[in-house]
Write a structure and sequence with these properties.
Elements lengths: L18 E3 L9 H28 L11 H25 L6 E6 L1 E2 L5 E7 L2 E7 L7 E4 H7 L4 E9 L3 E8 L3 E3 L2 E3 L3 E5 L12 E3 L1 H4 L3 E5 L4 E5 L16 E7 L5 E7 L2 E7 L6 E4 H8 L9 E2 L3 E2 L5 E2 L1 E3 L4 E4 L2 E4 L3 E4 L3 H5 L2 E2 L3 H7 L6 E3 L1 H4 L2 E6 L4 E6 L4
Parallel strand pairs: 5-12, 6-11, 17-27, 18-25
Antiparallel strand pairs: 1-24, 2-14, 3-4, 4-5, 4-9, 6-12, 7-8, 7-26, 8-11, 9-10, 13-14, 13-28, 15-16, 15-29, 16-17, 16-23, 18-27, 19-22, 20-21, 22-25, 23-24, 28-29
Helix pairs in contact: 1-2
């Protein structure tokens, strides 16, 4: 597929553990030092006109005698360079490379392992599922809104709920608080009671429309979610371990993060999907990238055949050997092979967005990495920087 040759993940050791680090851990870079050098050089370049004016004044003129000796000339130029370098260093030091923590909360889990974030909506305590791979804004289940007296209203925009339902009901929160961080005016689509599920566990979801405004760190070993300001030096984000890896991350126009991973040595475009219990791969990717067909050795149907699709199963499983994020490897990943993952993305979208979504289907990822694999990582997603940093979940 186009662009796959641009990124070559490092090879991870095979082992008996589910998560294996490379033999040569990535040493965190020194962005502050790099910044100082770059800014110092930039400031020296900016000072060149001054140097040139001094040089013109200090150099011998035609038919005249220079007022200063050559040694004095050089000393003055050196002094000017030192002043400019000092100013550049001061400017670099003033750049804040320290992460600013906006919110940090202890999260709960659903029965299937998805992340539930405690929030406060208009002074009501709720739990919302963390969903990084949806085109929807935030969601709120109608039974919850009715019980708490949260008033919604109709809007002109029609939101399509799958292929057979739609809604125009929206709730706008006066106050949405995550930890100590408060957000005003957050909008929620109100999901009708007929489509609301598991309301005994959570009240809705937080989607990329909100999350893309922060950097996100998930520490599954401590069940901790942290949101950071995006105003920091590039690369200066990993504080929990000395052994980590990072890979480029593409954030699409819906705010969904994509990374390149390798599965059994093949490069695959993958979305980070925290709301998905099991990692999924399209059957087209299984066929096109791995040469797998329903009759291939190792392919096992994981549900009964579907009469609506030529009486063939909708889901399969195959014993893949390893999935690698840069230098972090997951051995024997449990990946469900499905006919399509478009339904996972297209639910809850605006009717006006439908033509865009149809066009975007051509660019859908081959795989959605679910919480079953993400829970084995401690990771940091830098949305603005567009990098994904990760280590083993128990790394410290």
């Amino acid at each position: 597929m186009p662009g796959r040759s641009k990124w070559f993940p490092s090879q991870a050791r095979r082992g008996r553990q589910s998560v294996v680090l490379t033999a040569f851990p990535r040493v965190p870079s020194r962005p502050t030092a790099r910044l100082t050098v770059r800014r110092a050089w930039a400031d020296i370049v900016c000072c060149l006109p001054i140097f040139q004016r001094i040089n013109a004044k200090l150099s011998p003129l035609s038919g005249e005698m220079c007022m200063f000796s050559a040694g004095t000339h050089l000393r003055l130029l050196g002094l000017m360079a030192a002043i400019c370098c000092s100013a550049a260093a001061t400017a670099a030091d003033s750049q804040n490379c320290t992460l600013r923590l906006d919110a940090s909360v202890d999260v709960a889990r659903t029965d299937d392992g998805q992340i539930l974030v405690p929030v406060n909506v208009n002074d009501h305590s709720l739990q919302l599922m963390l969903n990084t791979a949806t085109v929807a804004p935030n969601l709120l289940f109608q039974p919850v809104a009715d019980t708490l007296g949260l008033e919604s209203h109709n809007v002109r925009t029609r939101y399509m709920l799958g292929s057979n339902h739609e809604t125009s009901r929206v709730f706008q929160a006066d106050r949405l608080q995550i930890g100590s961080f408060r957000i005003t005016g957050a909008e929620f689509i109100v999901l009708p009671a007929t489509l609301s599920r598991q309301t005994n566990q959570f009240a809705g979801q937080i989607g990329p429309e909100l999350l893309r405004n922060f950097d996100l760190e998930l520490d599954p070993a401590r069940n901790k979610l942290s949101l950071y300001s995006q105003d920091h030096c590039s690369g200066a984000v990993v504080s929990w371990t000395k052994e980590w890896t990072d890979v480029p991350m593409r954030v699409d126009k819906w705010g969904i993060p994509h990374v390149w991973v390798t599965i059994d040595g093949k490069a695959v475009d993958a979305e980070i999907g925290t709301a998905l219990a099991k990692t999924r791969m399209t059957i087209d990717a299984a066929r096109g990238i791995f040469g797998l067909r329903p009759e291939s050795p190792g392919m096992v149907a994981s549900e009964p055949p579907s009469p609506s699709v030529s009486n063939t199963p909708n889901k399969y499983r195959y014993p893949f050997g390893q999935l690698v994020f840069g230098g972090v490897a997951i051995n024997k990943p449990d990946i469900v092979i499905v006919r399509s993952i478009s339904g996972l993305r297209s639910a809850y979208y605006s009717a006006a967005q439908q033509p865009e979504l149809e066009e975007d289907r051509k660019q859908y990822a081959d795989v959605i990495i679910g919480i079953d694999i993400l829970s084995k990582l401690h990771f940091y997603m830098a949305y603005r920087e567009q990098h994904f940093y990760a280590s083993a979940a128990n790394a410290h």
